[in-house]
Amino acid sequence: MKTKIFLNLAVKDLKRSITFFTELGFSFNQKFTNDKGTCLIIGENINVMLLVEEFYQTFTDKQICDSATTSEVLISISVETRQQVDEMIEKAVKAGGTNYREAKDYGWMYQRTFLDLEGHHWEIFCMDESQIPNM
After folding, report:
1. pLDDT at 135 over 80
2. What is the pTM of this model?
3. Angle at alpha carbon of residue 84, lines to 18 and 133, rounded to 5°
4. What is the CATH number of domain 5-131?
């Protein structure tokens, strides 16, 4: 079996989050969806579990951070082209997200950032690995 990644994020309003990510073009795995959470499909083996805060809290004794003011994780997703980067940011803003930082163009990598409805930090980028400068 291939390794799969399941990131878990606390959300206040599950239906609103589903609508937001649907508008960005993502789909969900219905096998892992109920009134407590849903499985946002990022790629073949990469998923994000959007869990209502009360349910999320059952997995940890730690306090859930306020993602509007505290950074808990940076979620970075690669796409094929600069146009796809820009389109994702435009969709996020149109769906109620925030264009968080100015675009960064490193020549070999182009990146933009949005905050979702809960304030989670998402970086969308494209890169040409053959052009990465020697470090």
Report:
1. no
2. 0.89
3. 125
4. 3.10.180.10
